[in-house]
Design goal:
The complex is a heterodimer. By secondary structure, chain A is mostly helical. Helices cover 77% and strands 0% of the residues of chain A. In chain B, helix 3 runs parallel beside helix 8, helix 8 packs antiparallel against helix 11 and helix 8 packs antiparallel against helix 12. Chain B is flat and about 85 Å long. Classes of the chains: A mainly alpha, B mainly alpha.
Chain lengths: 279, 305
């Protein structure tokens, strides 16, 4: 009996050890980033001995970033873009999803098929004609191009529809008998009920838009329109040896997305879990 | 008789009203979706058969773009690299993610914290993490090579050059593993929690060992999850761009670092060969389609067993 419990304890210890190693591998690059962001360029690669926090931390790296490049402009652009895209995505997706889940109309199947069939289509397949079209519309080098590019995804409609399918139809029927019109049912009944799905969609959209790299690379050419990702990249190209500064900029770029992630973490996990299990 | 037609007219009117309400709900999303997604998709297929610089009138050239592509060593190289990267990344990430999920599925403390931390790389911006990665694996100054040199006494000239030559693909693979293992672990964890405990109790009674339980209970039960994971991960792998460009250090990539989407980008946006780029994009689409169909076929074969 004793050997059983001992064996089990050993097993537990091995599990914790393995998990600890994985945590270290996951976290070490971030620790390195934080540590490097308060070092001078000479200290960054100093290995023998390696110090986590230098004796004289260079907090001024965090000040210099704002003056060396238009960092505030990049952040402003990214915030505007992310907020507008996320709001549009939430409203238009949940709107369309309500019709697909709870209303009968002609052409429903065909329209939904159009969404489904593009869900696995990589954006990279049609990014070239999309760019030519946007340019003809005069949207090249505008944030508006980035908005319309990301705000109407098939994924959002699909995700919201799946959630609405789980809400009993009888709820809508009862409301209809009470004389509510469809817009009121959507706004007063469905929307409040779908908070978890909206949270999932929020975090996915926020993360994708905030971190988008290829889209802004194609569309945003002038300095004052750049997002934080491509702004940072130019900075890295320009000041390639000023590692401390680059790391400070990187840390700042990570903060908003990590905050949103930690706040909505539960929904992120639920979102990928349900989409994964149900396929 | 007259009453009947009157009724159906009223029903028709009601139906039309119903349709209009539904279309009003769909329109805001659908208009954007149709204009900015569906139309470009159709155009992409047309452009692939044309010679077009995006400004003058396109010329129809039939299959010429595709024939040229398969004689273009730069394209073939990018295709091979993308395949190598995908073949390396998918099984490795699945093995690690599943292993972690099984560990985390035990009764352990701090599961939530671990799950949150393991998703950090996934939500972090690619610029920030690739920059750190390039520092950590820096060929002469980075800590990884420093450890290889000091602790494992690898001669200075033999130290790996992680971001040039053939090792670059390995760097892509390791980086992707680090970035996405937490994400796929969460998917597997949900799959594991859907497996009924009775199956394990039954296999306990049959005297199954740990490996047998995995082989005959866990793995078959997880098939729907694995099916989904393989599809989205493979598609994700074939779309690799940011990782490649940023790890290899700039959009002017060498043959050994080139990947499919970087090829499309270069042809389209630096050389303005819009038709040629679209033909390469269609190849990307065909690969993704083939992977999806293959997986579906596999899945239905098992489902029928």
């Amino acid at each position: 009996m004793k050997s059983m419990t001992e064996k089990r304890k050993m097993g537990k210890a091995v599990i914790y050890l393995l998990l600890l190693i994985v945590v270290l591998i996951t976290v070490l690059p971030f620790v390195w980033m934080l540590s490097a962001s308060i070092k001078s360029d000479r200290e960054v690669f100093q290995m023998n001995p390696f110090v986590l926090i230098p004796q004289e931390p260079h907090w001024d790296n965090y000040m210099k970033v704002w003056t060396k490049i238009p960092f505030a402009v990049f952040i402003k652009n990214t915030v505007i873009l992310t907020v507008v895209v996320t709001i549009l995505q939430l409203f238009t997706s949940s709107f369309a999803a309500y019709a697909f889940a709870k209303l009968e109309f002609s052409g429903k199947k065909q329209l939904f098929l159009a969404y489904i069939s593009t869900i696995a289509m990589p954006w990279q397949v049609y990014m070239v004609p999309q760019f030519l079209m946007m340019r003809r519309m005069g949207l090249n080098d505008t944030l508006l191009a980035m908005v319309v590019l990301q705000a109407f995804s098939a994924f959002g409609v699909f995700l919201m529809r799946q959630f609405y399918m789980g809400i009993p139809d009888s709820l809508c029927e009862a409301a209809r008998i009470d004389g509510m019109n469809e817009f009121k049912i959507y706004a007063n009944i469905m929307l409040p009920l779908s908070k978890p799905a909206l949270a999932t969609l929020t975090i996915f959209t926020f993360v994708a838009t905030w971190n988008d790299y290829l889209g802004p690379t194609i569309y945003l050419k002038s300095e004052m329109k750049k997002t934080i990702q491509i702004g940072l990249q130019r900075f890295i190209g320009q000041y390639s040896s000023e590692y401390g500064l680059i790391m400070a900029g990187s840390v700042i770029s990570l903060i908003p997305v990590l905050i949103v992630f930690l706040l909505l973490q539960k929904y992120f996990v639920e979102g990928i879990a349900t989409s994964g299990v149900k396929g | 008789m007259a009453k009947n037609t009157e009724l159906s007219a009223a029903a028709k009117k009601r139906n039309r009203r119903k349709n209009l309400v539904a279309y009003a709900f769909i329109a805001p999303n659908f208009i954007g979706f149709a204009v900015f997604t569906m139309i470009p998709i159709v155009v992409a297929f047309g452009m692939a058969f044309c010679n077009w610089d995006g400004n003058n009138a396109p010329q129809f050239t039939g299959l010429k773009n595709f024939i040229d592509l398969f004689q273009d060593t730069f394209f073939l190289n990018s295709l091979v690299n993308t395949f190598l990267y995908s073949i390396g990344t998918v099984p490795l990430t699945i093995a690690v993610a599943l292993g972690l999920a099984i560990l985390l599925n035990q009764k352990i403390r701090g599961r939530g914290v671990f799950r949150a931390i393991s998703c950090f790389p996934y939500v972090s911006s690619i610029i920030a993490v690739t920059t750190v990665w390039r520092m950590i694996f820096h060929s002469s100054k980075g800590p990884v090579n420093n450890i290889l040199y000091n602790a494992f006494h690898v001669p200075k000239d033999d130290l790996p050059q992680w971001f040039t030559g053939h090792l670059i693909i390995l760097s892509y693979i390791l980086f992707s593993l680090w970035k996405s293992m937490g994400y796929y672990m969460v998917i597997y964890l949900a799959g594991l929690q859907g497996i009924s405990g009775e199956l394990y109790e039954a296999s306990d009674l049959d005297g199954a060992n740990v490996w047998q339980k995995f082989r005959y209970v866990t793995w078959p039960q997880l098939r729907p999850t694995t099916f989904f994971v393989v599809i989205i991960m493979t598609i994700g792998c074939f779309k690799i761009y940011d990782t490649a460009v940023l790890l290899a250090g700039g959009s002017n990539m060498s043959t050994s670092a080139m990947v499919l989407v970087a090829f499309i980008y270069q042809e389209a946006f630096t050389k303005w060969n819009m038709g040629y780029a679209s033909a390469a994009a269609i190849i990307l689409f065909l690969i993704v389609l083939a992977v999806t169909l293959f997986q579906f076929k596999n899945e239905s074969k098992y489902a029928n067993d």
